[in-house]
Amino acid sequence: MSKITINSQTVITYTGQKSLLECMEENGLPAEYNCRQGFCGVCRTKKFSGEVKYVVDPLAFYDEQEEILPCVCIPTSDIEIGTD
Ligand code: FES
Question: 2-80 domain in CATH 3.10.20.30?
């Protein structure tokens, strides 16, 4: 299980959901999305620390160093992200 820190304060735990986006939704956190398949980039989110793994190769443009696409990734360590 990975700890997910959001906007430096909210902490949730990843417990095996299909995607980080699903995990955020199950915890009542607002998350923007459209395709939910890594195509559109609407879910693009800043990543400050930690590692994720992509369950589907994303086609949307994003900065692999600083951003993630929560609709198609899962955390592989504790992560810190920003949704503001
Ligand atoms: S919702 Fe489209 S890339 Fe994530």
Answer: yes
